[in-house]
Amino acid sequence: MDAALVAEDVRKRYGETTALSGVSLSVDTGEVFGLIGPNGAGKTTLVRALSGTIRYGGSITVLDAEPTEVDRQRIGLLPQSFSPPARLTARELIGYYAGLYDDPRPVVDVLADVGLEDDADTWYENLSGGQRRRTCVGTALVNDPDVLFLDEPTTSIDPAGRRSLWNLIDRLAEGGTTVFLTSHSMAEVERLADRVGMLRDGQLVAAGTPSSLIAEYGGRSRLVVRGTVAPTDVTDSLAEVTHSLADATGFEVTTAGGNVVFSDVTPADIPAAVDALESAAVSYESLTWTEPSLEDVYLSLTGETFEGRRPPGAAVALEDPATASAAAEPTVSADGGNE
Ligand SMILES: Nc1ncnc2c1ncn2[C@@H]1O[C@H](COP(=O)(O)OP(=O)(O)OP(=O)(O)O)[C@@H](O)[C@H]1O
């Protein structure tokens, strides 16, 4: 497949600050590439370099041309911060941007794409934060771009609006649009991106499909048995019990903070673990199965933690051991993690 974007050894300094130090990547036509990384990692700087709005070192081609030479009709850019005139309506703003191109899309179609038909005639200053952001997304769609750069597109958009924007991005990609987006929402990137790049301190430290990154950096799936109590007539040591649980199931079993943890288990393995707990007469409060997610990849590559973060990946809490076998096919929220 043809590459729509190719970056080789891209470098950027702002005075003493190194924002990008040798980033190389390529994005295929029609691919959705998600760029993640901590604040200050260089994501916006890379979007700016790729979209031809800053000078940089190294080499970039977008649609086989240098970023500043590429036909602007073929590029759409949603910057991270965007401050249009406050007393233009959403319709006027999108119409203004449409007027910059020779062959723009009908403004009503763009308003429909971003779900603003009902608020199209409200001044920008009177729109909610999410409606404003959707207006801004609309301005990047007026020229039906072949390559679309979206720098944190869903910031301040509510869950329903976010989902409809995700569906829109899906449709654009299905139609052949190449999408390069940045996001702090791992759920968003996992949902949308064909491939993900992780930027840290101006360097691309990992890139691949979400599943390959999760397999490489996400850690292991686990069944956490909370509030465990060993059978006191046999032993009061949970550590001793773990040996019998490991022997009975063949899994690695450890203890952590009063919990028993089975590692590398699939949902189909849960009944065997429940049977082993019962045979060993271990009582417990609940079972939670977790699988690694992009969030775990992020955490492992940055060493950061998410405040108030729930356990990694899709979680299934099973209060009643009798229901454990039903967990072989757990319901997993597509929205998932932290936003
Ligand atoms: N115009 C500028 N002048 C000086 N320094 C800048 C400028 N733009 C960015 N920087 C610095 O470059 C580094 C990378 O910034 P950048 O905005 O690209 O990061 P980011 O990954 O997009 O961050 P965030 O997630 O917070 O949006 C940061 O240290 C930032 O302070």
TrEMBL record:
Coiled coil: none annotated. SUPFAM superfamilies: P-loop containing nucleoside triphosphate hydrolases. One of its GO terms (molecular function) is ATP binding. It holds the Pfam family ABC_tran. Residues 310-339 are annotated as: Disordered. This is ABC-2 type transport system ATP-binding protein. InterPro entries: AAA+_ATPase, ABC_transporter-like_ATP-bd, ABC_transporter_ATP-binding, P-loop_NTPase. PANTHER family: ABC TRANSPORTER ATP-BINDING PROTEIN (PTHR42711), ABC TRANSPORTER ATP-BINDING PROTEIN NATA (PTHR42711:SF5). Keywords: ATP-binding, Nucleotide-binding, Transport. Gene3D superfamilies: P-loop containing nucleotide triphosphate hydrolases. Residues 5-226 form the ABC transporter domain. It comes from the Archaea. Belongs to the ABC transporter superfamily.
